[in-house]
Write a sequence for this structure.
C-alpha cells in the first residue's frame, strides 16, 4: 500500500526552540528562539519516508536578560551577524515506539554542520482550528555539545570550573498547519 505525503508548514506563532545550559556549574540558564519556519512532509503510511526542514533566526534569541542576549548573539557565541540562522534538515526517521521517533539530520549552527538525533513525540492527531485549518503538533528533544559547533567561548571561575557549560539541552515544541 502506498500513501502519499502531506505537507505541513511550521506555525511560528505557536512554535519555539528552547535551550538549557549550566551557568557557573551550579544552575541552569534557559533561553529560547522564536520565528521558526519550515516544512514537514509527513508520510503516515511509511513514517521513515517523512522529512522535515526548519530554520531559526538567531536574532530571535531571548534569555530574558538583554546583556546576556547581546553577548550570545556576538562573535563570542552565535555570531548572528555572520551566521543569522540555525537550520535542520532531516536525513532519517525511525520509529522508536508508539507515536515516538528518532529523527536524525544535519544541524547547522555557527557555520558548522553536525549530525544530530532528536527524540520526537508525535505528531499529534490532527485538530481543526476555528478558521478551518488542520493542525498537528510535536515535541522534540536532544542534547549537543556547543563546542562541536565552534561555540567555544568560556571563562574560568576563581573557584574552579567554567562559567558556561558545554552540554546544551534543546527542546522543540512545534505546531504545523496543513498546506
Amino acid at each position: 500500500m502506498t500513501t502519499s505525503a502531506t505537507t505541513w508548514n511550521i506555525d511560528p506563532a505557536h512554535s519555539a526552540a528552547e535551550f538549557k545550559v549550566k551557568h557557573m556549574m551550579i544552575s541552569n540558564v534557559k533561553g529560547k528562539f522564536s520565528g521558526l519556519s519550515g516544512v514537514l512532509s509527513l508520510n503516515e503510511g511509511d513514517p521513515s519516508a517523512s522529512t522535515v526542514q526548519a530554520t531559526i533566526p538567531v536574532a530571535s534569541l531571548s534569555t530574558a536578560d538583554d546583556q546576556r542576549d547581546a553577548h550570545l548573539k556576538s562573535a563570542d557565541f552565535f555570531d548572528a551577524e555572520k551566521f543569522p540562522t540555525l537550520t535542520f534538515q532531516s536525513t532519517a526517521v525511525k520509529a522508536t515506539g508508539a507515536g515516538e521517533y528518532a529523527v536524525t539530520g544535519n544541524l547547522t549552527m555557527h557555520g558548522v554542520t553536525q549530525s544530530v538525533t532528536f527524540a520526537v513525540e508525535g505528531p499529534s492527531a490532527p485538530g481543526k482550528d476555528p478558521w478551518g485549518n488542520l493542525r498537528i503538533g510535536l515535541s522534540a528533544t536532544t542534547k549537543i555539545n556547543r563546542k562541536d559547533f565552534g561555540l567555544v567561548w568560556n571563562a574560568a571561575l576563581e573557584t574552579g570550573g567554567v562559567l558556561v557549560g558545554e552540554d546544551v539541552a534543546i527542546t522543540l515544541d512545534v505546531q504545523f498547519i496543513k498546506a
Summary: The first strand starts at residue 6 and ends at 10.
